[in-house]
Amino acid sequence: MMSELPRWKKNTYALWVGNFATGAGASMSLPFLPLFISTMGDFSKWELSLYSGIAFSITFLSQAIVSPLWGKLADRTGRKPMLLRAAIGMTITATLTGLSPNVWILILLRLIQGAFSGYINNAYALVASEVPTKQSGKTMGLLTTGSVGGQLIGPVFGGVIADAFGYRIPFYIFGCLMLMATVITIVGVKEKFTPIDKNSQLAKQSAFAGVKNVHVVWAMIISSMLIQAATNSINPIISLFVKELLTTHSNLALTSGIIAALPGIATLIAAPRFGSLGDHIGPQKVLIAGLLLSGVVFLPTFFVSTVFMLGVFRFMIGIADAALLPVTQTVMSVNTPQESISRIFSYNQSFQAIGSVLGPMLASMVAGILDYRFIFLMATGLVVINLVVVLWAYRKDGLSS
């Protein structure tokens, strides 16, 4: 049956598994990063929040710097080599992170990991270069469920492992999962790629030269950054916030893992449906609805007093993300020529990485100066800015409805 499928579908299914492994591995270890760091020294609340924010964010900082270079290389060599570079790089760095003797070695390894990461973004770029336009939204939604499905399983499984065997073991499992992604990519992904002559005019011109509705595409890139900043702002200290809300601290890692996984459950359920809906009614309406829902959910999260209510609101944020993440990818893919799609997606990855730095670092400062719950007010502000940018871009390109 698989042999009868078109190549782009086979690649989509293989990359779904690779995305799942990447999402599961990363989310298996990240929610417990503050708890892991707390075992490395006697830190104050301010120091622990700061070190957690740095360790979480520095991966994305190095990713933001190098992604355009990798994207430019991908448009010359193909996306499959970039997938393998990312998978092998994360296999090594994730495993070594579990061996970290102190917080500074951990931070250094996460910096290196960021420079070699980018599996999921390159998976999007490869599929976007092949998928028929009419099935773009549905396919991007399906691909999103791979990484999000992994992000759903990872924290819960990681919480069980961390509670039973310690915080280092999830990093070793992360390394094993990325080794699996490496093998799947080698065996299951077939790319028919025609390299661009590096001396040609096409290679020398801006990646945005052939892009339709350039303001909208830029808005999607900026939107990706703001979505990441808002959604990830709580991640570095989520286990600390859960600890504050709990009356008893038994099974802290497992409870934190469940709370971290809830957005993934919602996104996994809703993403393909929102992707298909965007194919039918247009991505603009789905995107704006997702942003409005985000604002409506982030604001009351400020007032939560129980872990249960925190879980309810985190689940609803996952529904909003399901309307946002596939749509931004779809809009970029349908407006970008194939020969520059890797560069556009690499810019998107850079801005996503900047958001993943900006959100947690701002959140760490807010948590250190005020309180953990003020992070949700900050996230609400980011959503409002995002909505203004999207509405302006659609109006600028004459696409507002």
From TrEMBL:
Name this protein carries in UniProt: Major facilitator superfamily protein
Annotated GO MF terms: transmembrane transporter activity
GO cellular component, one term: plasma membrane
Annotated organism of origin: Paucilactobacillus oligofermentans DSM 15707 = LMG 22743
Localization per record: Cell membrane
Membrane topology summary: Multi-pass membrane protein
SUPFAM superfamilies: MFS general substrate transporter
Major localization class: membrane
Pfam families the record matches: MFS_1
Domain Major facilitator superfamily (MFS) profile: 11-398
Residue ranges of the TM segments: 12-37, 49-70, 82-99, 139-157, 169-189, 210-231, 251-274, 286-309, 376-394
Keywords of this entry: Cell membrane, Membrane, Transmembrane, Transmembrane helix, Transport
